[in-house]
Amino acid sequence: GAVVSQHPSWVICKSGTSVKIECRSLDFQATTMFWYRQFPKQSLMLMATSNEGSKATYEQGVEKDKFLINHASLTLSTLTVTSAHPEDSSFYICSAAGPKVRTEAFFGQGTRLTVV
Amino acid sequence: AQKITQTQPGMFVQEKEAVTLDCTYDTSDQSYGLFWYKQPSSGEMIFLIYQGSYDEQNATEGRYSLNFQKARKSANLVISASQLGDSAMYFCAMRGGLKTSYDKVIFGPGTSLSVIP
Q: pLDDT digit string (tens) for B44-82?
């Protein structure tokens, strides 16, 4: 399968600071990238969907100004958690997919964010 | 709205036995894709198998097969000859094709599978 690299794999930051998470598709052009949040022992909650070169589509209840998503190229998307607070601590995972319904999404390794 | 249901929060299976993980879905799309992913304790998401809504045959990938019943909107995963390494969370996922939900991949709540030696 395709390789999606997510960086960093874990990060600890102070409350009030911003954190950027990168998601790169290494061997295919990802027309669509997804960002998910996962709490312990729960499912993946879709935060937003982004298509290359256009604004991300956020799911209901997800703060656009809090979670900034940029998908500037077919191989890179970034999620920036702005003014992070302890309640933002979670496992964030990105995935990349091609344009067709038949295409499975390939996942990054995930980022464990801890805000102290 | 699209929704996926997995009614088994936890399952146990004896090593070398087969196990079926249930998945039902709800969508108004005519064209959609169904996927199963495995998530071990490390957190990585591992793609297992895909079934398209127009595929007439049930998908198979090695020890994994998908029992697709379109009229009942179910897509159960069957793991044959369970191995200890199969212990993990299993998620059923769907990708739809309507303009309003294009590209979305949504996940069910997951089933925790434990393989007993």
A: 899 999 998 888 899 999 999 999 999 999 999 999 999
How far B42 CA lies from chain A's nearest CA (Å)?
Answer: 9
- Residue-level pLDDT at A100: 63
d(CA B52, CA B58) in angstroms, rounded, equals 9
Placement of tokens 């294009």 in the chain? B102
Question: Which among B44, B109, B110 is the nearest to A107, CB-wise?
Answer: B44
Distance from CA of A93 to the nearest CA of B (A): 9
Comparing alpha-carbon positions, the chain A residue that sits nearest to B95 is A101
Chains A and B: how many Cβ contacts under 8 Å? Answer: 66
User: Of A87, A88, A99, whose CA–CA distance to A21 is shortest?
Assistant: A88
Which residues have C-beta within 8 Å of that of residue B56, sequence separation ≥ 6? none
Whether A1 has a pLDDT exceeding 70, the answer reads no
The residue among A44, A57, A60 with the most chain B CBs within 10 A of its CB, best to mutate, is A44
For residues B94, B97, B98, B100, the Cα torsion angle rounded to the nearest 10 degrees is 70
| Contacts for A61-69: CB closer than 8 Å, 24+ residues apart | A67/A35, A69/A35
Mutation site, A104, A106, A113, interface B, largest B CB count within 10 A: A104
Tell me the Ramachandran region of residue A9: left when phi exceeds 0, alpha when psi lies from -120 to 50, beta otherwise: alpha
What value does the mean pLDDT take over residues A1-12?
A: 90
